[in-house]
Amino acid sequence: MDGVTVIDHPLVQHKLTIMRNKETSTASFRRLLREISTLLCYEVTRNLDLTTTRIETPMGPMDAPTLEGKKLVFASILRAGNGLLEGMLDLVPAARVAHVGIYRDHETLQPVEYYFKAPEDLANRLVIVVDPMLATANSATAAMDRLKARGASNIRFLCLLAAPEGIERFRTAHPDIPVYTAAIDSHLNEKGYIVPGLGDAGDRMYGTK
Ligand code: PRP
Ligand code: URA
């Protein structure tokens, strides 16, 4: 699928299967999400530009590779995005962080924004937006609209599970934003949940249901 990368690494798939299992505890779910996010982070950052910097190793001078450009921004769509954010920050501790507070209304499935805080200078930075679930894509699409309105133009979206309907909608609304996901599931049910999915990511992370 154009613009969509499925991260099918065996470790990712194995951990995802445990997360999907309804018998998996809240504590294990949260730990696995953090573990999996480091593996996903590795893939979503795979083709970052490098430059070189002159250093002295104990053996002599070297032009050594370093990341080029301004520091990355990780944008978490609250609440569940924070489960991915933690592991990403383990790998890129210097990244800047944006928080986009959005929940979807259970009746209408429309996004409701309740919080937004982002670094001032989003233009000229790569912004990696994280949320475990891309279902109708209403939340992710609204988050992208918001970040673009604040100047972001180089954006990637990372999730754990996506529905085909969500990918279609997201790519139509934001064809410039590549999507990275660990799996594309079968479909959405009548309540807008991903099937087979893993249930409500926020509730499973925080034990709120
Ligand atoms: C979940 C999930 C996404 C959204 C996906 O969040 O984390 O943000 O639903 O659904 P959509 O693609 O149909 O918009 P939720 O609204 O449950 O909020 P929470 O993270 O606070 O639990
Ligand atoms: N949000 C979730 O947390 N899970 C779904 O399956 C759909 C939306």
How many separate helices?
6
Number of strands: 14
Annotated CATH topology: Rossmann fold
Which percent range fits the helix content? Answer: 25-40%
Largest sheet: 7 strands, mixed
**SSE string, helices as H and strands as E:** EHHEEEHEEEEHEEHEEEEH
Shape: globular
CATH-derived architecture: 3-Layer(aba) Sandwich
**Could you report the average pLDDT, rounded to the nearest whole number?**
97
Bin the strand percentage. Answer: 25-35%
Name of the CATH class: Alpha Beta
Overall domain count: 1
Q: Which stretches are low in confidence, meaning pLDDT under 50 for 5 or more residues running?
A: none
Radius of gyration: 18 Å
SSE blueprint:
Layout: E1 4-6, H1 10-20, H2 26-44, E2 50-57, E3 60-67, E4 73-78, H3 81-91, E5 96-104, E6 111-117, E7 126-130, E8 133-134, H4 138-149, E9 154-158, E10 161-162, H5 164-173, E11 179-181, E12 183-184, E13 187-188, E14 194-195, H6 201-206
Parallel strand pairs: 1-11, 4-5, 4-7, 7-9, 8-10, 9-11, 10-12
Antiparallel strand pairs: 2-3, 5-6, 13-14
Helix pairs in contact: 1-2, 2-3
Describe the structure in your own words:
This protein has 209 residues and is α/β, with parallel strands linked by helices. The protein has a single domain, classed as 3-Layer(aba) Sandwich (Rossmann fold). Helix content is 33%, strand content 31%. The chain has a seven-stranded mixed β-sheet. Helix 1 runs antiparallel to helix 2 and helix 2 crosses helix 3. The two termini are 35 Å apart.
Structure at a glance:
The protein is α/β, with parallel strands linked by helices and 209 residues long. 33% of the residues lie in helices and 31% in strands. The site of 1-O-pyrophosphono-5-O-phosphono-alpha-D-ribofuranose has 23 residues, from strand 4, strand 5, strand 8, helix 4 and helix 6.
